[in-house]
UniProtKB/TrEMBL annotation, chain A:
Gene3D superfamilies: YVTN repeat-like/Quinoprotein amine dehydrogenase (2.130.10.10). This is Related to nuclear pore protein. It comes from Serendipita indica (strain DSM 11827) (Root endophyte fungus). Residues 210-220 have a biased composition (Polar residues). One of its GO terms (molecular function) is structural molecule activity. PANTHER family: NUCLEAR PORE COMPLEX PROTEIN SEC13 / SEH1 FAMILY MEMBER, NUCLEOPORIN SEH1. Belongs to the WD repeat SEC13 family. Coiled coil: none annotated. Keywords: mRNA transport, Nuclear pore complex, Nucleus, Protein transport, Repeat, Translocation, Transport, WD repeat. One of its GO terms (cellular component) is nuclear pore outer ring. It is found in: Nucleus, Nuclear pore complex. It holds the Pfam family WD40. One of its GO terms (biological process) is mRNA transport. Residues 1-28, 210-229 are annotated as: Disordered.
Automatic annotation (TrEMBL), chain B:
Pfam families: Nucleopor_Nup85. Its main location: nucleus. Component of the nuclear pore complex (NPC). Functions as a component of the nuclear pore complex (NPC). It is found in: Nucleus, Nuclear pore complex. GO terms for cellular component: nuclear membrane; nuclear pore outer ring. It comes from the Eukaryota. Keywords: Membrane, mRNA transport, Nuclear pore complex, Nucleus, Protein transport, Translocation, Transport. GO terms for biological process: mRNA export from nucleus; positive regulation of DNA-templated transcription; protein import into nucleus. GO terms for molecular function: structural constituent of nuclear pore. This is Nuclear pore complex protein Nup85. Belongs to the nucleoporin Nup85 family.
Length: 393, 731
């Protein structure tokens, strides 16, 4: 009764396309995929600067593309759907150093944008503060709905910005409420690296984009910049409102995750950090991905991290008991090095009971806790060609 | 078929091509979907600078694969629904019994009640197996069905063992258990088969057949005495050897006289009979000793049977092994032959003793689970039951939790953990959401937390909504209106479920999403109706803001029609609302009054009450319009008065209007323009505050003019604030 099975695959190519080995242009491939709140819509972004949205037809189980538009002037890095309470809103961030807010339907903006003419999606705002420091934007995530229509943005210079939408019926009005240099929160053990080699977009030739603008000058001869190669940028909000506005941030080449508490008075503090391993050494490779599990009635929080060294860590975090201690308790609940290469993504399911991890080994792993709180593999998706008898349609 | 390890087809990476694939700067990624326990898997570019110069042409895209975990077999739907009803009834009953003011429950009564629940589960499994058999007759190669049938058979045997061990129908745990275990064994593991006996029946001298003694011994061990006595009687009468005849005859007599615990009302009577029966063994044992040195047909086997009757443990274990029986049979028959007084309390030690002699197959989850049940090791049993099927472990732990065992706290945690896991698995078929929520609702705070999240993620359908003509759904898959495709959850059902289980937060959030959707469809009246159920003032105010915005963007005609959709009952609070809710009714009053004003205006009505109604909106002691609207209201009043020079307003109202005008003008000039002039500027698309202030200047002139007219009218002795042709010419 339990286990994994592939139920469908969607593509713009016909299903029976015999040319399975056709080279896939990386500039055209889906770079990120983001599924909406109810699971019936999907947005993909790609290195060709476009965003595409899909809807699921549950009668057939097929996803059909319903919109596709050029969203940025450089590869699109991440997407995030806002809670449906605020409408059909999508945020995208890009190597063009901007974050854009998109809304489906609604009133046509006064200045029509040619980029998405004919699309139902309207560009409502462009948040371009990262341009002032010349950094590409690497992560974007809407806050849980309880905190209002709020957006966290992390750029490659490790600046975390929090934007608040001032008027919910007017998505053009965003206030920058926090600008936090994550590197300054806690002095790193390794000296800061030069920022000149870190902002280029993948797939861009010396940072040149389709509109001729420059995105930085990091890439010389196609060799990755050191910080690009060694760093990681990821954010994840705490989904529970009872402990205040908390956000986990992994930035740059440091193997640390910092958890920040943001207050309404626009002040912030680091409430705890997640060391790269149980020993607490901080000179570890960068954390590439962080995911905060939904609480769903649990008495403790779970945060998963994935790093360049190939480890997936699961942290069990207990909030302070006001009458006993004011410190958060942080314990490593599980550590796995099954990927044996950099972990690109960790993510929790909606109830925080299953963790997925994806790695450069080309495999997806699913993890679930046993009754005794021990995390174990519950599934393994191989993307490599397997023996015929093992393969599943 | 589901597996914990799958390969994608077509594969993303060629065979042994990981290194090359990685060098091309690729990686894989996955994203969970909240729908149907699924996740999307796809290839993506690694965030690293790429080789230069890859052309950006072509329309190829990578595939996105959708995998599902914990899928519920489609064949199980009815089974799941039926068993959920039993679960719900059991839990409801238990909650009543455990209510704070309830008297302590008699454990015997509790056990008998749960015995019935367990029996219902077993009946459902049995019925399901019958339907499977019927289906398999038509589709004998249906692998999913065959696999599930095997699982259900295991579930039946294990659940019925749990019933025997933990839920005696008579409610006495200290009662002898041998016969009940024997019934369980014979019901679930039938051996030997009827065909074996039929084959022997046809033979003239069946004892010469190589399987004869194996058959006799197996039947004896398992208390299937009819064929045993039949064949041994034939032997006693037809065999040539007198020793064989005597031994066979004595065995038949002894077995015939063997007492059964089920035949006695009182255990003491059974024990008396047992003692008497054992005393009668001396004839059989003496005969065995007498013929010990002679050779006769069936000597070894009949000696074994004699030893079995006299309760020799070693013989029992050896006979079970020789007859191809496992530790399972050995434990069950132990309480018949070796330890007839065996109770459920003795089971763990006896099971351990037997298992030491006859090990359990460590690769067979069914055996492992049953061994744990015999040993009453609940934690182990849960783990092995989980390996068999999540339904089994969830319901087993649920029954055990209800029994208030000594390990109550551990069992309670196990029950919650596995019921929650089961409920989550049910969500792989989204149409089972009601069942999943019902299960979760009995799992404390954690269960309610999960239920809350699952309900929030349910796409819903709103019934009975009239859409504006030619409307295009902005997000057609999140809210279905009218047209039904799949059995998607009805919004009202979801909200009712939230209310029933006290999931206020989920209800409030869902209603907010609904209100957003309805507002996007310009169905503000419906949005307000839903939000008023949860008294969500913040969201109600947001809807009113959007509705007011309709006037600013689309003008009076649309605005009036949209406001007309709002049920007027919300204008008349019952008096039980919170002060916060009255904020909403006040604001609604403003919106409706303003819409009525425009409605009258559109019908060509020109009366002093129009200006009065606008003045009313500017009076904080009556209907306080939002400050942002004051500028616009003042302009409206100005327009009204300038259009009709005959119109004037009462002096009190005029004082209010003038006071507001001064406030707006002064504060706007001091930088508060946005606060007072927002609606005005938006309505007339004014570019600056200065432009709006210029407009207010002209309003001021009109107002002063009108006030002067009114004063003149009063001086004229008419005592009227409004008079048609009596009003003197202002000039």
């Amino acid at each position: 009764m339990r286990g994994l099975e592939v139920v469908d695959s969607s593509s713009s190519r016909p299903r029976d396309d015999p040319d399975k080995s056709a080279p896939v242009n990386p500039r055209r491939s889906s770079h990120r995929c983001c599924i909406r709140f109810h699971g019936l819509r999907l947005a993909t972004c790609s290195l060709d600067q476009r965003i595409k949205t899909w809807t699921l037809d549950e009668t057939t189980g097929n996803w059909a593309s319903d919109d596709d538009w050029k969203a940025h002037d450089a590869p699109v890095c991440r997407l995030s759907w806002a809670h449906p309470e605020y409408g059909t809103i999508l945020a995208s961030c890009s190597f063009d150093k901007t974050v854009k807010i998109w809304e489906e339907g609604g009133v046509e903006p006064a200045r029509g944008s040619d980029a998405n003419a004919g699309s139902r999606w309207r560009e409502r705002a462009t948040l371009s503060e990262s341009r002032t420091t010349g950094a590409s934007v690497r992560a974007v995530e809407f806050a849980p709905r309880q905190f209002g229509l709020k957006l966290a943005v992390l750029s490659s210079d490790s600046i975390l910005r929090i934007y608040d939408c001032v008027e919910l019926h007017n998505l053009a009005t965003w206030n920058l409420t926090f600008t936090i240099d994550v590197r300054l929160l806690q002095p790193p053990s390794t000296p800061p690296m030069s920022t000149t080699d870190m902002f280029a977009a993948p797939g861009t030739s010396l940072g040149a984009s389709s509109n001729g603008k420059s995105y930085g000058s990091s890439v010389t001869g196609g060799r990755p910049g050191k910080r690009e190669a060694d760093g990681g940028w990821s954010i994840s909000w705490c989904k529970d409102a009872t402990t205040g506005q908390l956000i986990a941030v992994a930035a740059d080449t440091y193997g640390l995750v910092r958890v920040l508490q943001l207050s309404d008075s626009r002040s912030h503090k680091t409430v705890f950090t997640l060391p790269p391993n149980a020993s607490g050494a901080t000179d570890s490779p960068a954390i590439t991905t962080v995911a905060w599990a939904p609480l769903c009635g649990r008495r403790f929080h779970l945060i998963a991290t994935g790093g360049r060294e190939g480890k997936v860590n699961i942290w069990k975090i207990s909030p302070p008991h006001t009458n006993v201690t004011t410190e958060w308790s942080v314990n490593l609940a599980g550590t796995f090095d099954d990927h044996q290469s950099a972990v690109t993504r960790v993510e929790w399911n909606v109830t925080g009971t299953i963790l997925s991890s994806a790695g450069n080994d080309g495999n997806i792993r699913l993890w679930r806790s046993t009754y005794g709180g021990i995390w174990r593999t519950m599934g393994h998706i191989h993307t490599e060609h397997g023996d015929d008898e093992e393969m599943h349609e | 078929m589901a597996s914990d390890r799958i390969h994608l087809t077509p594969p993303i990476i060629d065979k042994n091509g990981v290194t090359k694939w990685r060098e091309r700067n690729r990686t894989v990624n996955c994203t969970f979907s909240p729908r149907a326990n699924s996740l999307a898997v796809y290839q993506s570019a690694n965030i690293l600078p790429q080789p230069i110069g890859t052309p950006a042409s072509g329309k190829q895209e990578t595939k996105i694969y959708f995998a599902q975990w914990d899928a519920v077999p489609s064949t199980r739907r009815k089974f799941i629904t039926d068993t959920s009803i039993v679960y719900d009834a059991l839990r409801r009953g238990l909650n009543l019994l455990r209510a704070k003011d309830a008297r302590p429950v008699d454990p015997q009564f509790l056990m008998q009640t749960h015995f019935e629940s367990c029996k219902l589960y077993l009946d459902i499994i049995r019925k399901t197996l019958k339907t499977y058999d019927a289906r398999l007759e038509k589709r004998p190669e249906d692998e999913e069905l065959l696999h599930d049938k095997d699982l259900l058979e295991v579930m039946y045997s294990c659940m019925s063992l749990l019933q025997v061990i933990f839920l005696p129908f008579h409610g006495f745990l200290a009662a002898v258990v041998g016969r009940e275990l024997m019934h369980w064994l014979n019901e679930n593991y039938v051996t030997p088969t009827g065909e074996d006996g039929m084959g022997l029946l046809e033979l003239e001298e069946p004892w010469l057949h190589p399987t004869f003694w194996n058959f006799i011994k197996t039947c004896t061990i398992r208390l299937i005495f009819r064929p045993v006595t039949h064949f041994l009687k034939r032997m006693a009468s037809a065999h040539t050897n007198p020793a064989t005849r005597e031994m066979a005859d004595l065995i038949v007599t002894t077995l015939d006289q063997m007492p059964s615990s089920e035949d006695y009302e009182q255990e003491s009577d059974y024990f008396d009979s047992l003692r008497a029966w054992k005393t009668g063994h001396h004839r059989l044992t003496r005969a065995r000793e007498r013929h010990a040195k002679s050779l006769y047909e069936g000597k070894a086997e009949m000696e074994d049977i004699t030893n079995l009757i006299t309760g020799k443990t070693g013989t029992l274990v050896r006979m079970c092994t020789e007859c191809g029986m496992s530790w399972r049979e050995a434990i069950c028959v132990f309480g018949i032959w070796v330890h007839p007084r065996m109770t459920r309390h003795d089971l763990p030690s006896i099971a351990s003793e037997v298992i030491e002699e006859m090990p359990v197959d460590p690769t067979d989850p069914e055996e492992l689970l049953q061994a744990a049940l015999f040993q009453k090791d609940i934690v182990k049993a849960a783990s092995h039951a989980n390996d068999v099927d999540i339904w089994l472990v969830a319901h087993m732990m649920d029954i055990l939790e209800s029994l208030s065992l000594p390990e109550a706290s551990v069992v309670s945690r196990l029950q919650k953990y596995y019921i929650i896991t089961y409920a989550e698995q049910l969500m792989s078929d989204p149409s089972m959401w009601r069942i999943a929520i019902a299960y979760l609702s009995y799992c404390g705070i954690r269960g309610m937390g999960v239920a809350n999240e699952l309900l929030l993620r349910l796409p819903f359908r709103i019934a009975n909504i009239d859409l504006p003509a030619n409307h295009k759904y902005p997000d057609s898959l999140t809210v279905f209106v009218g047209k039904q495709t799949l059995p998607m959850a009805e919004l009202d059902d979801i909200l009712e479920t939230c209310r029933r289980h006290g999931l206020k937060q989920a209800e409030e959030t869902i209603v907010r999403v609904v209100a957003q959707k309805l507002s996007a469809l310009r169905l503000y009246g419906k949005a307000i109706e839903y939000l008023a159920r949860t008294l969500d003032v913040r969201a109600l105010m947001k809807v009113l803001q959007l509705l007011s915005n309709e006037y600013l963007v689309h003008g009076a005609h649309d605005f009036v029609l949209l406001v007309d959709q709002i049920p007027s009952r919300y204008l008349y609070p019952s008096g039980q609302e919170s002060p916060d809710f009255l904020r909403f009714t006040d604001h609604l009053h403003f919106v409706i009054t303003y819409a009525e004003y425009h409605h009258d205006l559109s019908r060509g009505i020109r009366s002093p009450s129009l200006a009065t109604s606008l003045a009313l909106l500017l009076d904080p002691s009556r209907v306080d319009a939002p400050k942002e609207w004051w500028g616009l209201l003042l302009v409206d009043i100005g327009d009204l008065l300038v259009d009709d020079t005959l119109m004037s307003v009462p002096a009190d109202d005029m004082n209010i209007i003038l006071a507001r005008l001064e406030e707006v003008y002064t504060k706007s000039r001091l930088g508060g323009g946005g606060e007072y002039l927002g609606a005005l500027m938006k309505r007339y698309e004014m570019k600056s505050v200065t432009e709006a202030l210029q407009r207010l200047e002209s309003v001021r002139f009109i107002l002063v003019h009108s006030a002067a007219r009114s004063m003149l009218s009063e001086v004229g002795g008419k005592g009227r604030l409004w008079g048609g042709n009596q009003t003197p010419d202002a000039d």
